[in-house]
Write a structure and sequence with these properties.
Blueprint: E1 8-11, H1 15-26, E2 31-35, E3 48-49, H2 51-56, H3 62-69, E4 71-73, E5 75-80, E6 84-90, E7 103-105, H4 108-120, E8 125-129, E9 132-138, E10 143-149, E11 152-158, E12 160-163, H5 170-174, E13 181-193, H6 197-200, E14 207-211, E15 217-222, E16 225-232, H7 238-241, H8 244-254, E17 263-275, E18 280-281, E19 284-286, E20 292-293, H9 301-320, H10 327-330, H11 332-356, H12 360-375, H13 377-387, H14 390-395
Helix pairs in contact: 1-4, 1-9, 3-4, 9-11
The structure holds flavin-adenine dinucleotide.
């Protein structure tokens, strides 16, 4: 594959695109990053970083920055709304497998802000904020992107394009790459409050998945607040779902409080399980949400997207600097796509089923099974390896 422009274009400056741009730029590859927004998008989605993601990003300095901005969470609980704690998993048991045996909670926009600041310091980095990818042309010698900026079309050229432009990826659509899978009928509501749940529920962890046939929820501690995630029935509009009344009711369901809650964050998301039919068209690659979407129960979407760009940029850097021929690029999709299906989808779907099960007998059986896994040292260790994404990365050969 010829190189004419000595430049990689990254479409989308979310967490995955920004990290891709930084890893390439730090390796001496000139990068253009095209981002539709004017600055960091205040996005209340991802907050969990798993141990191997922290290991893999250590050398880049990203792990140190996340650690400085984040909260170390050593345990994860499965709970039942009526019964309370069902099972607790101690991530620190993985200390012989990883340098970071815990979940780190840090909002994704803090990662993006840090990476933008780092990118701005590197010569050869062209940051195009307020630019939206509109057309793509690719041939034997180059890839050309037209981006809409202030009502005009700006032409940008490079040798490779990485589409990191999120779930509704324009890159994926322009390449006519199918995105099969499903969209859940319910939406997912997020509320953040500074109320100290642990003062009132002393046995909780910082990460709690709570089962209930109707009102299951996830309760997470992040550095300066607690966040809940709850399902919203399909017949309820997004506006009604984010109303004060609805948010107060969701929070009261977790811990009744006569004074009501101070709500500092509210957001609603539609959630899907989808994987692109291919991660590559010639010079164009997909990564992150552009390539795969999953439900947030397990905190795997962004982690998986970061694993994508760690794999892809390692390969691009080796090829760029002549340490490998271009066949190394062909290894990206087989390394990453099966894990989106076998690990990310399988585990997140299993987690959702566990939390929302309505049949009382199945539900009791599922919770018993979680108790049994937690009580068995070998099974709980395997559960930890799987839920921390270590098994997935080992299977795909990204870590030993
Ligand atoms: C409620 C919720 C909670 C979650 N929690 C977790 C978690 O704890 N851990 C985890 O690992 N994952 C989590 N996820 C998933 C995670 O948020 C996503 O996987 C992650 O944001 C993907 O990053 P990305 O950079 O691929 O895409 P995005 O974050 O969507 O970024 C895409 C970027 O591209 C830009 N863009 C879009 N179109 C264009 C265009 N045409 N031209 C230029 N720019 C464009 C957008 O402005 C955006 O900045 C959660 C998801 C949800 C819904």
């Amino acid at each position: 594959m010829k190189r004419t422009h000595n430049r990689v274009i990254v479409a989308g400056g979310g967490p995955v695109g920004a990290v891709a741009a930084l890893l390439l730029a730090r390796a001496g590859i000139p990068v253009t990053m095209i981002e539709r927004a004017q600055d960091v998008v205040l996005d209340y989605r991802a907050s969990t970083f798993h141990p191997p993601t922290l290991d893999l990003l250590e050398e880049s300095g990203i792990t140190a920055a996340l650690t400085a901005m984040g909260l170390v969470c050593p345990t994860v609980q499965i709970r039942d709304r009526e019964i309370g704690k069902i099972a607790e998993f101690d991530v620190t048991r993985l200390k012989n497998e990883t340098g970071h045996p815990y979940r780190l909670q840090c909002e994704q926009f803090k990662l993006v802000g840090f990476v933008y600041r780092e990118l701005a310091k590197i010569a050869g980095v062209d940051l195009r904020f307020g630019h939206e990818v509109a057309t793509i042309d690719h041939g034997d010698h180059e890839v050309t992107v037209e981006a809409e900026h202030d009502g005009d079309l700006v032409t940008l050229r490079g040798d490779i394009l990485i589409g990191c432009d999120g779930g509704r990826s324009t890159v994926r659509k322009l390449m006519a790459i199918a995105f099969p899978g499903l969209t859940y009928p319910e939406q997912f509501l997020i509320a953040g409050t500074r109320f100290d749940f642990r003062a009132h529920m002393p046995d909780i962890s910082s990460v709690n998945y709570t089962a209930d046939p109707i009102r299951w929820f996830m309760l997470l501690q992040i550095p300066d607040m607690w966040r809940i995630l709850v399902p919203v029935a399909p017949e309820i509009s997004a506006d009604d779902a984010v109303s004060d009344e609805s948010l107060q009711s969701s929070l009261q369901n977790i811990c009744p409080r006569p004074d009501g809650y101070d709500i500092v964050v509210r957001a609603i998301y539609r959630v899907h399980q989808r994987v692109a039919e291919t991660y590559r068209r010639d010079r164009i690659f997909l990564a992150g949400d552009a390539a795969h979407l999953n439900n947030p129960l397990g905190g795997m979407g962004l982690n998986g997207g970061l694993h994508d760009v760690i794999s892809l940029t390692d390969r691009l850097i080796a090829w760029w600097h002549g340490r490998a021929d271009e066949t190394i690029l062909a290894g990206y999709e087989p390394q990453r796509r099966p894990e989106a299906i076998n690990a990310i989808h399988a585990i997140t779907a299993r987690n959702k089923k566990l939390l929302e099960e309505r049949d009382p007998q199945v539900r009791a059986r599922n919770l018993d099974e979680m108790r049994a896994i937690a009580a068995d040292p070998e099974r709980s260790y395997q559960y930890l390896l799987d839920s921390a994404m270590i098994s997935s990365l080992r299977r795909s050969g990204m870590i030993r």
